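Researcher: I'd like a structural prediction for the single chain below. Treat it as a standalone chain; there are no partners to consider.
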Amino acid sequence: MNPDIPFYTHILIFIICGILTWFIFYALNYALNEIKAIQITRKKYFLFTALIISGWLAITAFIALNGTLLDFVSVPPKIILLIIPPVLAISYLSNSERVNKLIETIPVSWFVYIQSFRVLMELMLWLLFISNVIPVQMTFEGLNYDVLTGLSAPLIGYYCLTINKWPRIAAVLWNIAGLLLVTNIFIVSVLSTPTPMRQFFNEPANTMIAYFPNVWIAAFIVPFAYFMHILSLKQIIKFGKQI
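Model: Treating it as a single chain, here is the predicted structure.
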């Protein structure tokens, strides 16, 4: 851990990861109940999910604690180790028939409501900024507008997908905007790191992602946000769900 990073921001990361993990298992349990899965199938799903999540969090924590990610000068940067596995996992899960069968049973508003966690995420980034750990462009005072996704998630979830007062296209556009906003802050954060790709040279440089538990932002939290948008779009467009 970097002693310059306030401990209370570490607590926020653990809280966010805990909320997201709880949601995964809660939604999984709901879906398995809906398809009336037998007990042995339920155990397999829960065990596999627990092993994947805990294993990935443990591996990335070890990589960060080992100092591997502090090498910002290598090409490509070693931070890429955090990106490729989640991209492959999201690609596989998004096209899995088993996953499709499960998400088809889950209320469509859930994948929108859970994006409210991004308010906590943006609060944490702002706390890191005022502690002089990350540059201003990574916060809502700079170029990061992702807080808008978190603030609007309850409205979109309720009016578009719970009581159906707003048109479904609004939820589709909201998901696309959410993908663009999280991509924006991802790019800004990458261009703020002290790698050969750096474009933002104001200090401090973005090195906090190389430390534990901040490593989970790139390894787990950001991929979760992407995955929820993809699943929400799939529910609305492919399955035509509105409730």
